């Protein structure tokens, strides 16, 4: 789910070849799990089919000499995705991080996104608090588990909010 | 709105703690004020409660301007309309739990017998009926905070101000203390304003605001979260 949108976001920054997209994806979002070339090209193929990118063939050697560019439809999809908080669930590190970095890269409102995400997490925390209060011990323990994970995200959101300036400089310099 | 800060600024020397902070709290609402250490959240609570006077801006309580009242009238308001719970209870350790709970009533000239009865009722509601005769210095952290909640609510305040009420407690004890504070305040129809850095505590509130660099960000009024 995140990979097509991350690739679209990277293309909004500038038109790129598949190889460059893979390199940038791995550098920013791969974290030890590089994106297979096959997935890059199949994703770009689907995005082109759906009208979100265009591929312009270029003369030259190598397996892929297409230069991909984002379309207005693709740009709209990135804008919508970056503005939307993710449903509050455990194990969101990858998607939260990707959204913040891409928002900074594209000069969008990363702080506003973090505020919205924080509020979404807090709303879920309140729902789980009600479950903890009113449910059985099993329900309460399951709610506790989810709340501790959301709390970890919330701490990450706060720390990232405090370091947003430094992160923006790093992202723009790279 | 029962409590409101309008463009409140306050500095400590040359260091600004609040910069034109705005916050409106409706009657009966439970609101958490969150934010990093040193962000100004406790200063905001102290301004709302009339403990600090803002350098500029206005503080309103129930349709009355609070920041322009003289010290005497503000003290009276704090004693009669507000209740307070702080991180370390701020109980008198040499007095018994019952005496601590009675203290605000006696200061308000309630007759001793009536005050004793009210204190006993509140200690029971806070599950402390057997500990009324115990000195508060001998109580556990959670028990002491429950005495502090009884003391805050015994005068039937309109607003309870709590500053990191579970900051010194473990998770389970803290949750129990918050459930009692919020549950009993709701039963009494009291508004609660609680400062906390703990998301689990804030999740007991109806909504939260975040203070950063002395400014209040409220995602529920800016529309970012809806």
UniProtKB/TrEMBL annotation, chain A:
<protein>
    <submittedName>
        <fullName>PadR family transcriptional regulator</fullName>
    </submittedName>
</protein>
<dbReference type="InterPro" id="IPR036388">
    <property type="entry name" value="WH-like_DNA-bd_sf"/>
</dbReference>
<feature type="domain" description="Transcription regulator PadR N-terminal">
    <location>
        <begin position="7"/>
        <end position="79"/>
    </location>
</feature>
<dbReference type="Pfam" id="PF03551">
    <property type="entry name" value="PadR"/>
</dbReference>
<dbReference type="InterPro" id="IPR036390">
    <property type="entry name" value="WH_DNA-bd_sf"/>
</dbReference>
<dbReference type="InterPro" id="IPR005149">
    <property type="entry name" value="Tscrpt_reg_PadR_N"/>
</dbReference>
From TrEMBL, chain B:
<dbReference type="InterPro" id="IPR003439">
    <property type="entry name" value="ABC_transporter-like_ATP-bd"/>
</dbReference>
<dbReference type="GO" id="GO:0005524">
    <property type="term" value="F:ATP binding"/>
</dbReference>
<dbReference type="InterPro" id="IPR027417">
    <property type="entry name" value="P-loop_NTPase"/>
</dbReference>
<dbReference type="InterPro" id="IPR003593">
    <property type="entry name" value="AAA+_ATPase"/>
</dbReference>
<dbReference type="InterPro" id="IPR017871">
    <property type="entry name" value="ABC_transporter-like_CS"/>
</dbReference>
<keyword id="KW-0067">ATP-binding</keyword>
<keyword id="KW-0813">Transport</keyword>
<dbReference type="InterPro" id="IPR017911">
    <property type="entry name" value="MacB-like_ATP-bd"/>
</dbReference>
<dbReference type="InterPro" id="IPR015854">
    <property type="entry name" value="ABC_transpr_LolD-like"/>
</dbReference>
<feature type="domain" description="ABC transporter">
    <location>
        <begin position="3"/>
        <end position="224"/>
    </location>
</feature>
<keyword id="KW-0547">Nucleotide-binding</keyword>
<dbReference type="Pfam" id="PF00005">
    <property type="entry name" value="ABC_tran"/>
</dbReference>
<protein>
    <submittedName>
        <fullName>ABC transporter ATP-binding protein</fullName>
    </submittedName>
</protein>
């Amino acid at each position: 789910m995140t990979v097509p949108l991350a690739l679209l976001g990277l293309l909004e920054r500038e038109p790129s070849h598949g190889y460059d997209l893979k390199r940038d994806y791995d550098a920013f979002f791969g974290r030890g799990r590089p994106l297979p070339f096959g997935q890059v090209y199949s994703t770009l193929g689907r995005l082109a089919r759906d009208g979100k990118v265009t591929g312009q063939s270029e003369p030259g050697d190598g397996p892929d000499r297409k230069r991909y560019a984002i379309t207005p439809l693709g740009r709209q999809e990135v804008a919508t995705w970056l503005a939307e908080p993710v449903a509050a669930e455990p194990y969101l590190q990858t998607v939260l991080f990707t959204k913040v970095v891409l928002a900074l890269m594209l000069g969008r409102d990363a702080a506003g996104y973090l505020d919205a995400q924080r509020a979404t997490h807090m709303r879920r925390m309140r729902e789980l608090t009600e479950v903890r209060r009113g449910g059985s011990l099993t329900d309460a323990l399951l709610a506790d588990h989810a709340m501790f994970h959301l709390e970890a995200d919330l701490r990450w959101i706060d720390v990232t909010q405090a370091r947003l300036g430094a992160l923006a400089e790093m992202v723009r310099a790279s | 709105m029962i409590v409101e800060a309008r463009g409140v600024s306050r500095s400590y020397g040359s260091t600004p703690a609040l910069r034109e902070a705005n916050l409106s709290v409706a009657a009966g609402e439970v609101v958490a004020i969150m934010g990093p250490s040193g962000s100004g959240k406790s200063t905001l609570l102290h301004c709302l409660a009339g403990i600090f006077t803002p350098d500029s801006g206005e503080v309103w309580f129930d349709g009355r301007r609070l920041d322009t009242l003289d010290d005497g009238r503000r003290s009276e308001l704090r004693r009669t309309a507000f209740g307070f719970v702080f991180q370390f209870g701020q109980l008198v350790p040499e007095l018994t739990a019952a005496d601590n709970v009675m203290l605000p009533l006696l200061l308000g000239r309630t007759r001793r017998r009536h005050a004793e009865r009210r204190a006993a009722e509140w200690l029971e509601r806070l599950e402390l009926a057997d500990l009324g005769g115990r000195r508060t210095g001998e109580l556990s952290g959670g028990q002491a905070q429950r005495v502090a909640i009884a003391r805050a609510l015994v005068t039937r305040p309109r607003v309870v101000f709590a500053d990191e009420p579970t900051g010194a407690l473990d998770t389970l004890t803290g949750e129990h203390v918050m459930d009692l504070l919020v549950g009993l305040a709701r039963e009494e129809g009291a508004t609660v304003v609680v400062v906390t850095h703990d998301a689990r505590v804030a999740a007991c509130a109806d909504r939260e605001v975040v203070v950063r660099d002395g400014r209040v960000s409220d995602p529920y009024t800016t529309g970012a979260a809806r």
